[in-house]
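Summary for the steering committee. The consortium agreed at its last meeting that each partner would contribute one worked example illustrating the joint modelling workflow. Our contribution is presented below. We chose a case with several input lines so that the handling of multiple components could be demonstrated. No manual editing was applied between input and output; the record is shown as generated.
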Amino acid sequence: MFDLDTGALAGPASQADADAHPQHAPTPHRLSGTVVWLLGRASLRGTQLTRAKLNEHGVGKWHYAVLAALTEFGAAAQAELGRRLGIDRSDMVAILNVLEGQGFVSRAPDPDDRRRNSVVLTEAGAAALTRFDRLIAEADDALLSGLSPAERQQLVGLLEHLIFPATE
Amino acid sequence: MFDLDTGALAGPASQADADAHPQHAPTPHRLSGTVVWLLGRASLRGTQLTRAKLNEHGVGKWHYAVLAALTEFGAAAQAELGRRLGIDRSDMVAILNVLEGQGFVSRAPDPDDRRRNSVVLTEAGAAALTRFDRLIAEADDALLSGLSPAERQQLVGLLEHLIFPATE
DNA sequence: CATATATCAGGTGCACTGAAATGA
DNA sequence: CTCATTTCAGTGAACCTGATATAT
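What follows is the complete predicted structure of the assembly.
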């Protein structure tokens, strides 16, 4: 039947000789062989690195994403921002509250459609984005430290292909 | 919703037909150019696919991971399982409560070290794992549907290299 | 004494849902 | 009335920390 290993590591109660950490047990092949698990591990590492950097500046990854979208595509309504970045309408409210509180964006009702809030990047927001860009690049670099430049490029291409299937 | 997908596949219909800037910009380059963001998107898609399948059977990804570890490496204490899988000791309790409630594992104090719970896979657990294996494979396949077999292999290799820097 | 294990009690970020109020 | 936008209230899985009781 299923073996009751009584310890799996060593035999009878001899753990006191912790002199050499036997490198952590390997990962089950059922996990390490699937892309979903590998992506989850890699993504977790990435978010940890990114969060560690951004948290010191009082923002998270979504705040960075919003600033980036506003810089690259100009002012937009909240719903439009959410659609573009994949942020839920409900979370967008809280994200913009923080950004507005820090003076990085301003919300003003759109005169053409007063349901909408036109979210505009401020000068302070643009300056902050410039600072954050470096942090993100550092996190990305730390995450990819084990890969050669060619491998990094390969990885980016594969992930883009995976996320945007139809785009050439 | 379409939070996870391209974000602009069908669009909200006639809303944006009168836009002054026809150039549609799916994702800010600051995001799509970084690996951390790409990994986050891909991982989210993967977890959604996986969760959708596993939820119908009343389990999550961690429950699957525990069953996989028990099958491949035999019975183990909770702390050992957590170390191997990257699950926090605190979450492991809740995960095993579910698995034990479903009869997939059993917890019994280790006679050699009575601090430990020896977690053992039951026959029902082994049978469940066999079912879950197919679901995970399906989710993985759906996630990778846009990649060729060669590209999939490439991606797996790169991710393994990224997660386990010192490949032994 | 110190260490390890299992458990409980939280906190946080994030994905997500439902419903309300407002306006097109 | 129908639909879109913003906001609020709340759920749930994951990640994480601290503290406690028990055993080594």
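The mean pLDDT of chain A is 87. The longest strand of chain A covers residues 113-121.
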